[in-house]
Amino acid sequence: MHLLFVLHLVFEVQSISMNHNFTCDCSCHVELKSANCTSSNFTNLPAALPPFTEQLDLSHNHLSTIQPRAFHTTRRLRVLLLNDNAIGMLADGAFSLLEDLLRLDLSRNRISSLSEGFSQGLGSLRDLSLAENRLTSLDSSCFVHLDALQKLNLSHNAIETIKMRAFGSMSTLRQIQLDWNNLTVLKNGIFSMLRNLEVLNVCHNQIDFLDIGVLSPLTSLALLDLTYNNLSTIQFKTFLSLNTYSTHIMLRENPWKCDCDLQRVFRKLCNVKRLFLDDYDNLSCFDENNRNYTAGFHKEFCVGEMVTVLVITITVVITVVAAIVMAEKKRGKKNKEKHWTEASELSCASHD
Ligand SMILES: *[C@@H]1O[C@H](CO)[C@@H](O)[C@H](O)[C@H]1NC(C)=O
Ligand SMILES: *[C@@H]1O[C@H](CO)[C@@H](O)[C@H](O)[C@H]1NC(C)=O
Ligand SMILES: *[C@@H]1O[C@H](CO)[C@@H](O)[C@H](O)[C@H]1NC(C)=O
Ligand SMILES: *[C@@H]1O[C@H](CO)[C@@H](O)[C@H](O)[C@H]1NC(C)=O
Ligand SMILES: *[C@@H]1O[C@H](CO)[C@@H](O)[C@H](O)[C@H]1NC(C)=O
Ligand SMILES: *[C@@H]1O[C@H](CO)[C@@H](O)[C@H](O)[C@H]1NC(C)=O
Ligand SMILES: *[C@@H]1O[C@H](CO)[C@@H](O)[C@H](O)[C@H]1NC(C)=O
Ligand SMILES: *[C@@H]1O[C@H](CO)[C@@H](O)[C@H](O)[C@H]1NC(C)=O
């Protein structure tokens, strides 16, 4: 009975597809408006795809280039999966006709640079993944047309430099993954338009310096992940300039220096109500002999300074007390001498 019902359903779906007159090189589904061409050994884009296709899965093929206006027969695409191919070359305007495209997955390809023409026509795109490619630099024009982007995944590339206006047009961006790249500094101005950014993930880089004002434009930031970097010290103002309601900051797995100044920075941070140093208890630090102390900041590094202050105070007190005592002694001696004279006079007198 149950099986019969399922069979009936399958037959119906097939008959619906038969009634439509279109050719499809992949596995196409009318109602879902989808074409699934995954793992089919395509080296070029399939020639025949239904024009109504809104979801196209071309993942796990052998595509190596995308020509200009490549998708001119499927202009209604909303989701395009090109992940796990061998794409090294994206022509200018490769996606220029896809004005309804919402999601583009280009992860796990061989893309090493992005030209201005890459983002042409992608004004509706909300979700872009370029993870696990070979990008080394983000130029000021590479994302210029992405006016509606909300999620950008750039993790697992080799990005060393981010040019000043690289994220310039992306005021709608909410999440950016820049983890597992080769960033060493975060310079003022690189995040200047990202006022809606909520998640900034820069873990697993080699960052050893943040410009003091670099985080100040991020007025919506809720999560900042700086773990697994090369930070040994940081200035309080760098985080204080975050003008947000509430931001969680993660800082563990950095070679922090075990010293009083840094301890003060972290303590002051813990007192700023809107900032949460989530992993303060897990920060390890390195002393001058490069020894790694787990939960290092539970120790007291301002002891040295306290001792110095104490020593100075004690010295001053001792000096003052000594001076008073000396003065008293002097006075006492004078008095004693007086008594002695008196006594001797007396004794002399009694002697007489
Ligand atoms: C489908 O359309 C083509 C022309 O585009 C026509 O030659 C063919 O006969 C049609 N097939 C069906 C089953 O309607
Ligand atoms: C395409 O089909 C494969 C299985 O053949 C499936 O894993 C994948 O999720 C499908 N793609 C889409 C976008 O539905
Ligand atoms: C793709 O090519 C591989 C190796 O040549 C082969 O084993 C596999 O069956 C092919 N897959 C398809 C869907 O043709
Ligand atoms: C970004 O891409 C990486 C690598 O493919 C993946 O592991 C991660 O889940 C993605 N992150 C998001 C938020 O999509
Ligand atoms: C980038 O960083 C990775 C570690 O995350 C490292 O293996 C690689 O050598 C670095 N590449 C360059 C060009 O520095
Ligand atoms: C970490 O930063 C130090 C300078 O503070 C530098 O000498 C070292 O090479 C950096 N390490 C990495 C892995 O980039
Ligand atoms: C310091 O030691 C802890 C605990 O053994 C370890 O988790 C951490 O990775 C070390 N820190 C660094 C920067 O090597
Ligand atoms: C962080 O510290 C807490 C307690 O101090 C401990 O239970 C937890 O395992 C630590 N987490 C990591 C990732 O080291």
Distance between the termini: 146 Å
Please describe the biggest sheet, giving its number of strands, its sense, and whether it closes into a barrel. Answer: 12 strands, mixed
pLDDT averaged residue by residue: 87
Structural class: alpha/beta
The arrangement of helices and strands along the chain is HEEEEEEEEEEEEEEEEHEEHEEEH
How much helix, percentage-wise, in residues? 10-25%
Number of strands: 21
Estimate the global geometry from the Cα principal axes. Answer: elongated
Q: Order of strands across the widest beta sheet?
A: 1-2-3-5-7-8-10-12-14-16-17-19
Share of residues in strands? 15-25%
Q: Bound compounds, please?
A: 2-acetamido-2-deoxy-beta-D-glucopyranose
Tally the helices. Answer: 4
Which residue ranges are poorly predicted, with pLDDT under 50 across at least 5 consecutive positions?
3-19, 340-352
Radius of gyration: 36 Å
**From the structure provided, what is the oligomeric state, counting identical versus distinct chains?**
single chain
Descriptors:
Leu-rich_rpt, alpha/beta, 352 residues, disordered C terminus, binds 2-acetamido-2-deoxy-beta-D-glucopyranose, membrane, 16% strand, signal, twelve-stranded mixed beta sheet, Leu-rich_rpt_typical-subtyp, transmembrane helix
Describe the structure.
The chain crosses the membrane at residues 306-327. Keywords: Glycoprotein, Leucine-rich repeat, Membrane, Repeat, Signal, Transmembrane, Transmembrane helix. It comes from Anabarilius grahami (Kanglang fish). It holds the Pfam family LRR_1. This is Leucine-rich repeat-containing protein 15. With 352 residues, this protein is an alpha/beta fold. The protein has 4 helices and 21 strands. It has helices spanning 2-19, 236-240, 260-271, 303-351; strands at 27-29, 34-36, 55-57, 65-66, 79-81, 89-90, 103-105, 127-129, 137-138, 151-153, 161-162, 175-177, 185-186, 199-201, 209-210, 223-225, 247-250, 256-257, 275-277, 285-286, 292-293. The chain has a 12-stranded mixed β-sheet with strand order 1-2-3-5-7-8-10-12-14-16-17-19. A 3-stranded mixed β-sheet has the order 18-20-21, with no helix packed on it. The protein has a two-stranded parallel sheet with strand order 4-6. A hairpin with a 5-residue loop joins strand 20 and strand 21. The longest helix has 49 residues, at 303-351. The protein starts with a helix and ends with a helix. It binds 2-acetamido-2-deoxy-beta-D-glucopyranose (8 copies). One 2-acetamido-2-deoxy-beta-D-glucopyranose (NAG) binds at residues 39-41.
